Structures are given as structure tokens and as C-alpha cells.
Amino acid sequence: MSGVLPQAPERAAPISQNDSATLTLENGRTVRLWAELLLIFVAAPVAMATVLPGSIMWFALAGIAVVAAILLSLTPGFRWRQLVARAALRIDWPRLGLYVVAAAILSFALTEWLVPGRLLSLPRGNTRLWLVIMVAYPFVSAIPQEIVFRALFFERYGGLFPDLRLAIVANAFVFGLAHLFYGNWPAVVLTAIAGGIFAWAYAHRRSFGYACLLHAVSGQIVFTSGLGIFFYHGAIGEV
Q: What is the chain written as a DSSP string?
């Protein structure tokens, strides 16, 4: 009976000292990046919610923002000018408009369900403060948070995830976790859902500006509708 004998498998080329050193360096860098990610996006929010006093909360948040900016500057291949240059690019304006309408309807409905009687309480009861929040929120809250949770997360740690969808889910989770210190479930759940949308805008559309716009209008809608009560640290006991 004729036939072909299977060939012996080829031997793998031995790993050189240079290859071994490179592999060791890469493994060490991966471990370090995971440690950074877990410290910034998991350990810090849990500590803020369980250990740190409320009086220093905003100082802690400012410190995290500074650390994020430093780490971004040290990230190979990252350039601040590129982040700024593409800020106004790839914005889907029709989809942004649909998001605003849907977010407004949802926020107003949730306000009536969770805190009846507080619908439009801020613009009606303290118009000056409401106007200040409308103007300041994009600059003092949305943009700094997008630098930390989108730019830093995806530019420095995005490569740790084998799939973009998994990275977006993880980003949504840590964004919700970051709001744990407010001490109520609506703040955590709503920001986790919104965080997934902001992450999609940044990672899938590759637009920092789109993510910032979505974040900014989300905050403005929340504080206009009445859901802003869930985003005042220590204020929930007054509901």
C-alpha cells in the first residue's frame, strides 16, 4: 500500500537572549500597565467611596486628573496636539441630536419616578446657579473627565484588551464605579450606561470632541431635569 509518511514537525527556532529580554520587558510593561489601570480606575474610586472623607473628595479628583495628564504625556505615541486637532472631527451631528432628545426624555421620566416634585427644580428655584452649571460644566467636569476616562484609558491601556468591544464595556464599568462615592445607585448606573456611549464615541468614532460633547450635554440635561440631586455628594440624605 502506497502512501506519504507525515513529516516530522519543524523544530522551533531557539529564543535568543535579545528575544528573551524583549519578551521579559514586554511582560513587565504589561504588568505595570495593569497595575496602573487597577489603581487609578478601581482602587482609587473604591477608596474614595469607602475611606476618604467627603471634605477632600474634590482634591482627590483633581489629583487623579493631574496624574492622568502626566501619564498621558509619558505614553509612547500620544500627542496632545493630535488629541486637540481631532477634537472637532468625526462628530455625527444627527446622531448627537437624537441622543439629546432621548437623554432628555429619559432624564425627565426618571426624575418624575425617582424624585417626584423635583422636575426642573434647579432652573426654577435657582436660575443663576443653573446658568453657571450650564456654562461651566463642559469645562470643569466633562472635558477633565474625558481626559481621564477616555483619553488615558484608551490611549495608554486600550492595548491590554483583546477586543475593542471588551475595552468599551470595561470603560463603562469603571466610569460607573468612579461615581460610587455619591452613595446612590442612580448615579452609578446612569454613568455606567452613559460611559459606554462616551467610550464608543471616543474609541469607535476616534473623536475626543464627540465624547466631550456627549458628556457635556448629558450633564446639562441631568442638572436641568432634576436628576442632579443624585450628583451632589452628601445631598441624597436630603431627598
A: ----PPPPPPPPPPPPHHHHHHHHHHHHHHHHHHHHHHIIIIIHHHHHHHTS-GGGHHHHHHHHHHHHHHHHHHSTT--HHHHHHTTTSS--HHHHHHHHHHHHHHHHHHHHHHSTT-TTHHHHH-HHHHHHHHHHHIIIIIHHHHIIIIIIHHHHHGGGSSSHHHHHHHHHHHHHHTTGGG-SHHHHHHHHHHHHHHHIIIIIS--HHHHHHHHHHHHHHHHHHTGGGGGSTT-GGG-
